[in-house]
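Input chain follows. Return structure tokens only.
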Amino acid sequence: QVQLVESGGGSVQPGGSLRLSCAASGFTFSEADMTWLRQGPGKGIERVAEILSGGGTIYCVESVKGRFTISRDNAKNALYLQMNNLKPEDTAVYYCAKDPAVLGGIRIGGAWGQGTEVKVSS
């Protein structure tokens, strides 16, 4: 079955960087569009960035453009999110997902990892 395992979260100061990773298995990763989503404290889930099977990228949150980079390594079945110049508002649990379905900020379908926590504070 589909399995997604995130890693790389942690606590950083504002302006710091983190690289999230997601190890994928149980499906043909190279043929899948993949998504990073996040849920901040007391907030609904929001899509952060998507990368298509062909490599095209979509950044869904205006505030992360220019700071976050989504990428993939099909040879390693791995998805990444490089996060630079982190801000306190980036504090959230970050999820990688295949075919995620979100309605009203609530997860309603798709395959998701367990999430990795990112905390940005001074």
